[in-house]
Amino acid sequence: MRPCRAEIRTRALEDNYRFLVRQAAPHAELLAVVKANAYGHSLAICAPALVRAGAHWLGVTTVEEAIVARALCPEARVMIMAGISRGQARAAIDFQLTPVAWEPWQLDELEAAARAAGAQASSVPIHLELDTGMSRQGVAQRELAACFTRFGPASPLRLDGVMTHLFAADEADGQDTQAQLASLDEAMGHISAEGLFAEWLNVGNSAALLAGQAQPIAELAARHGMKALLRPGLALYGLVPRFDPSFAPQSEPPALNAARESLQPALTWKASVVGVRSVPAGATVGYNATFVATEPMRLALVCAGYADGLDRLLSNHFSLLVRGQRAPLVGRVSMDQSVIDVTEIPGVEAGDEVVILGAQGGENITAYDHADAAGTIPWEVFTRIGPRVPRVAV
Predict the structure, then answer these.
(1) What is the pLDDT of residue 244?
(2) 3-state DSSP call for residue 253?
(3) DSSP category for residue 245
(4) Could you tell me whether strands 227-230 and 200-203 are parallel, antiparallel, or unpaired per DSSP bridges?
C-alpha cells in the first residue's frame, strides 16, 4: 500500500462528542454532522463511533450519503440536510430518512412517494427549512403560508422540525444571530397560529454551541412547545471555530477555553520519505525551478502531492514534520509527490514517517495552519484530502 494515509482516532471523536453534549445540556440535543464523508474523516469510521458515544441523530448532505449512514447505523435518525434531488423521494421514504425540505417540488415528490409506498398519515418526518437571512436555501417568510397545507391531517408528511442556519454565529456582537432568531421566532408564531406542531427546533452549529447559544435557542423552542436540536460539525473533529477577533479575552464565551483544552483533533495525516538526496548550491527543485538551492542541501522526497489534498499553494512556504522537526517544502508541490528540506535534520532516511497534518514529537501542524498558508478554511483542508488517501481507524 502506498504509505500515505489519514489516521482517525475514534476515541478522540467520541470524547469530543461527549464534551459537546455537556456544553449543550440540559438545554439541547445534538445532531452530529457527518456530511462530506465526515468532513473528510470517513463516514464509515466516524458515524458508528459517534453513535457509540451516544449520538441519536446524524446529518449528511445527500440521499446517497444518507443511505450509507443508514446501513452503518440502523438505529440512528439520519437527516438529509441539503434536501432531496429530483427523483430521490422514494429512496428517502424507503430508507426511513429525515429530509430537510423547502421547495414546493420537494414536498410534492415526498408526498407522492409516501402515498405510493402506502405511508400512513403523518408518518414521514420532514424538517422545514426557513430562510432567516442567509439567502441560500429555505422558505422565505412571505411564502411560508403556502407550506401549511402540506402538513394537513390527511397528508403522509409530518412537520417533525423547523430548521434554519445561523450564518454568523462566530461574530462577537451577535447582531446577525439575534436578528435571525427574531425572524425565526416570528415565523414559528405563524406556524403555531395555524395549529401546526413540530417537535424540534433545528438551529445552530459548532460556533453557536460554543458561543453559548444553546440556552437562548432552547428558550425560543420552549416558547413554541418544541425541543432544541443543535448541529455541531467542526468541533466534533477536534477544532474550535475561530471567533471574530473583536472578542476581547474577557468577553469570550466561557465554553471556548474549555473547548480549547478538551477537544482533541481526530485526524492525523501521514506519509513517508521515499528517498533522500544531496544537491549542490545552484540546483533547482521541482517544476519551473521555483526553488534554487543557495547552498548544498539534503532533500527528502515525500509521497504526497496535490492529488492527495496537499495544496499546491503551500509550495515554498509551508513545512511538514519529520523526526519531530519542521522541514520546509521546497519547490512546487507535484500531483503525487513533494520535496522537503532536511539539511538541518540529521539521519532522515527512506521510510521515515512524515506528518502532514497532526503532531509528531513536540511539534504540531493544524488544519488552521494549512488553511492560513493556503488562504482557505479548515473545513476545506479536511474535505480536500483525496479519496485515494486511506482512512484508518486507530
Answers:
(1) 74
(2) coil
(3) T
(4) parallel
- At position 75, the amino acid (one-letter code) is E
Tell me how far apart the alpha carbons of residues 40 and 43 are, in angstroms, rounded to a whole number: 8
Strands 5-8 vs 267-279: parallel, antiparallel or unpaired:
antiparallel
In angstroms, how far is CA 7 from the centroid of its own chain? 17
The set of cell numbers assigned to 119 is: 405511508
| Grid cell for residue 108 | 410534492
CB 201 within 8 A of CB 189: no
Tell me the per-residue pLDDT of 10-36, one tens digit each, with 9 for 90 and over.
999 999 999 999 999 999 999 999 999
Q: Is 386 left (phi over 0), alpha (psi -120 to 50) or beta?
A: beta
- d(CA 152, CA 159) in angstroms, rounded, equals 10
pLDDT digits (tens, 9 = 90+) for 87-114: 999 999 999 999 999 999 999 999 999 9
- In this prediction, residue 69 carries a pLDDT of 98
* Range 343-366 burial, b when 16+ CB lie within 10 A, else e: bebeebeeebebbbbbebeeeebb
Share of the chain above pLDDT 90, in %: 91
Between 254 and 63, residue with greater pLDDT? 63
Q: For residue 248, what pLDDT is reported?
A: 57
- Cell of residue 253, nine digits: 464565551
In the chain, helix, strand, coil percent, each to 5? 35, 25, 40
Dihedral (CA of 306, 310, 314, 319) sign:
negative
Q: Are the CB atoms for 310 and 365 separated by under 8 Å?
A: no
- Cβ neighbours, 10 Å, residue 74: 10
Give the integer Cα–Cα distance in Å for 267 and 238: 9
Cα separation, 338 vs 313, whole angstroms:
12
Q: Which residues are the active-site residues?
A: 35, 287
The Cα–Cα gap between 149 and 284 comes to: 69
Residues contacting 25, CB < 8 A, separation 6+? none
3-state secondary structure of 147: helix
The predicted structure's pLDDT at residue 213: 92
Strand 200-203 relative to strand 319-322, pairing: unpaired
Stretch 145-156: mean pLDDT: 92
Residue 249: the pLDDT is: 59
